[in-house]
């Protein structure tokens, strides 16, 4: 499978480049970044290009390399146009950037089906994070009072994280909305109680030193339950990225969430 990595100079992009290079079933054929050229090859690969095409032109790279899969770790503003271009060219998008609407996801799903290709948008590629979301969904059947605290590095652009939103959506499938906290509570400092989603509260922390972390806290009579996942480094996302590159070759339509690829 011929893979092009977009956002290759970024922290997630570089990790993805290494993961693709190290997998015998994948072939890295192109790296795209806004400021990427042959001079920057060593900054991404750590050695000479060995036939990998480096460019700041996504469309030209996808065409020239005859790519099967485009892995995108860019920004919300850039990612949407990249997905459109990839699908138009029949290249399967595997996207880790978040910040799209349900309507956009539905439109891309139909576009993929029209082209007869698969695609994936994953709020989180860490297998442990997917298990955290599944366990939280199950727990909400019995402990419906829940709040989420998600913690990321201070360069993350969107809040709450895509993982937090996906967790809230999964929980909402299992429980009825309930009133949490005192009905007459008052925020002395606006925003202190966090964002609200179907009666649940979500809090976003952005600090240097974090990578990606989330805890889902359930409260019941005389007890609490906390389900927590921590990505210590970006390598934790790579097994999910590699698996996704292979799986999108097997189906048609756009899948939202890595959990849909698991048994």
From TrEMBL:
Pfam families named in the record: DapB_C, DapB_N
Keywords: Amino-acid biosynthesis, Cytoplasm, Diaminopimelate biosynthesis, Lysine biosynthesis, NAD, NADP, Oxidoreductase
Domain Dihydrodipicolinate reductase N-terminal, first and last residues per copy: 1-125
EC number: 1.17.1.8
InterPro entries in the record: DapB_C, DapB_N, DapB_N_CS, DHDPR_bac, NAD(P)-bd_dom_sf
Enzyme type, top EC level: oxidoreductase
Gene3D superfamilies xref list: Dihydrodipicolinate Reductase, domain 2, NAD(P)-binding Rossmann-like Domain
Localization, UniProt: Cytoplasm
Binding site for (S)-2,3,4,5-tetrahydrodipicolinate: 153, 162-163
GO annotations of cellular component type: cytosol
Major location category of this protein: cytoplasm
Record-level GO BP terms: diaminopimelate biosynthetic process; lysine biosynthetic process via diaminopimelate
Signal sequence region: none
Catalysis performed (reactions): (S)-2,3,4,5-tetrahydrodipicolinate + NADP(+) + H2O = (2S,4S)-4-hydroxy-2,3,4,5-tetrahydrodipicolinate + NADPH + H(+); (S)-2,3,4,5-tetrahydrodipicolinate + NAD(+) + H2O = (2S,4S)-4-hydroxy-2,3,4,5-tetrahydrodipicolinate + NADH + H(+)
Pathway: Amino-acid biosynthesis; L-lysine biosynthesis via DAP pathway; (S)-tetrahydrodipicolinate from L-aspartate: step 4/4
Active site residues according to the UniProt entry: 152 (proton donor/acceptor), 156 (proton donor)
Domain called Dihydrodipicolinate reductase C-terminal: residue spans: 128-262
GO molecular-function term, one example from the UniProt record: oxidoreductase activity, acting on CH or CH2 groups, NAD or NADP as acceptor
Organism superkingdom: Bacteria
Positions annotated to bind NAD(+): 7-12, 96-98, 122-125
Subunit record text: Homotetramer.
Function description: Catalyzes the conversion of 4-hydroxy-tetrahydrodipicolinate (HTPA) to tetrahydrodipicolinate.
Family: Belongs to the DapB family.
Protein name: 4-hydroxy-tetrahydrodipicolinate reductase
Organism (species): Tumebacillus flagellatus
Protein encoded by which gene: dapB
């Amino acid at each position: 499978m011929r893979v092009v990595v977009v956002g290759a100079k970024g922290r997630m992009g570089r990790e993805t480049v290494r993961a693709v290079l190290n997998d015998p079933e994948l072939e890295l054929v192109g790296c795209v970044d806004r400021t990427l050229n042959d001079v920057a090859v060593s900054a991404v690969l750590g050695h000479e290009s060995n036939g990998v095409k480096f460019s700041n032109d996504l469309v030209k790279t996808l065409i020239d390399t005859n790519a099967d899969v485009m892995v995108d770790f860019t920004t919300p503003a850039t990612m949407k146009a990249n997905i459109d271009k990839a699908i138009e060219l029949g290249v399967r998008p595997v996207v880790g950037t978040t910040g799209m609407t349900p309507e956009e996801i539905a439109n891309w799903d139909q576009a993929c089906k029209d082209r007869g290709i698969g695609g994936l948008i994953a709020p989180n590629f860490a297998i442990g994070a997917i298990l955290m979301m599944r366990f939280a969904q199950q727990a909400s059947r019995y402990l419906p009072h829940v709040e989420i605290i998600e913690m990321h590095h201070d360069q993350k652009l969107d809040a709450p994280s895509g993982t937090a939103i996906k967790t809230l959506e999964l929980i909402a499938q299992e429980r009825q909305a309930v009133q949490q906290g005192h009905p007459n509570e008052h925020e002395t400092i606006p925003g202190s109680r966090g964002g609200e989603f179907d009666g649940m509260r979500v809090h976003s922390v952005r600090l240097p030193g974090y990578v990606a972390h989330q805890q889902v806290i359930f409260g019941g009579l005389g007890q609490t339950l906390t389900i927590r996942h921590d990505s210590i480094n970006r390598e934790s996302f790579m097994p999910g990225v590699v698996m996704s590159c292979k799986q999108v070759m097997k189906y048609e339509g756009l899948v939202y969430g890595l959990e849909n690829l698991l048994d």
